[in-house]
Amino acid sequence: MSIESAQPTIIVDLGKYKDNYLWMKREDLIPFSFGGNKARKAQLFFKEIDKSNYDCVVTYGSGSSNHCRVVANECSRRGMECYIISPQEASEQTFNSQMMELFGAEITTVPVSEVHDTIERKLAALRADGKKPYFIEGGGHGNIGTEAYVQCYREIQEQEKELGVHFDYLFFASGTGTTHAGLVCGQILAGDERKIVGISIARKNPRGRDVVLDSIRSYLGDRAVETEIQAKTIFIDDYTSGYGKQDYRVQETIDAVLKRNGIPLDATYTGKAFMGMTEYLTDIIEKNILFIHTGGTPLFFDTLRGRR
Ligand SMILES: *Cc1c(COP(=O)(O)O)cnc(C)c1O
């Protein structure tokens, strides 16, 4: 099994939920390295790597980063060197950090203020050694990451035809904003109607939403119509209790979904998003709702163990 062999992820029908009808797109079941949106993005980054014969990868992220775990795993599968720059401030041991070590990634931990320069020095040192490093932004941010979720949007449209349903709302956890931007770009390019609601897991408005808007503008280029992208970008920042911090309501949400549906959510991303969606739906009835499960299963186990 490799990262290239991922198929469309299934959409499961979870039945009636809070006076609406709920489905879930299981990006967490992408069949490589515990899946998730970082696996979908990584597929496209590794296509670039193959196209231009890069021979090692440099990226960055915290000790709990799903992105770094997926990238390190794909590098280990290929026997390719992987260099991860990690901020000291978020370097506690987690299942993801343990796996990054297992995959043989070289992890350099520095204060967050030195991350940028450390990356530049690492890239320069590798080039001086005659290597051809490929750099991936943290979280798989950038137009390639956005493209991955434009493709996901098209996949959802195909699945709607098969299922005979139109989703009125999409909900998901929004972090660096690339997943969010890709879905909005997908909608704009397709010219169809529905509400796309990103639940912020860390950033506050207006900055959080501005980052999503910048990603949309960057991807669409000349095709961006400012009034349209403003109207279509809904970014909810009411559930940003702090990145990875425990919130008893998030824990209750995680427990309820696991007991009722047998589906793991985590405290940093999907648990917050699911809770945010539930509150958002308070005054909404009879709509078809799609929750996009963006992965992070190793974080579910960190939560279970009470570390985060
Ligand atoms: C990274 C991540 C997100 C956020 O995705 P962005 O594209 O960075 O906004 C959501 N859920 C999980 C599980 C993630 O790992």
Give an account of the 3D structure.
This protein has 308 residues and is α/β, with parallel strands linked by helices. Helices cover 45% and strands 18% of the residues. It contains 11 helices and 10 strands. The chain has helices at 37-51, 66-78, 95-102, 115-128, 143-163, 178-190, 207-220, 226-232, 248-261, 270-280, 297-304; strands spanning 11-17, 20-26, 56-60, 81-87, 106-110, 133-136, 169-174, 195-200, 234-236, 288-293. Helix 1 (37-51) crosses helix 5 and helix 2 (66-78) runs parallel beside helix 3. The longest helix has 21 residues, at 143-163. The mean pLDDT is 94. It binds pyridoxal-5'-phosphate (PLP). Pyridoxal-5'-phosphate binds at residues 36-38, 66, 139, 173-180, 269-270, 294-296.
Describe the structure using short key phrases:
single chain, 308 residues, alpha/beta, 6-stranded mixed beta sheet, 4-stranded parallel beta sheet, 11 helices, 45% helix, 18% strand, binds pyridoxal-5'-phosphate
What can be said about this structure in brief?
With 308 residues, the chain is an alpha/beta fold.
Spatial order of the strands forming the largest sheet: 1-2-10-7-8-9
Based on Cα principal axes, name the global outline: globular
Order of helices and strands: EEHEHEHEHEHEHEHHEHHEH
Low-confidence regions:
none
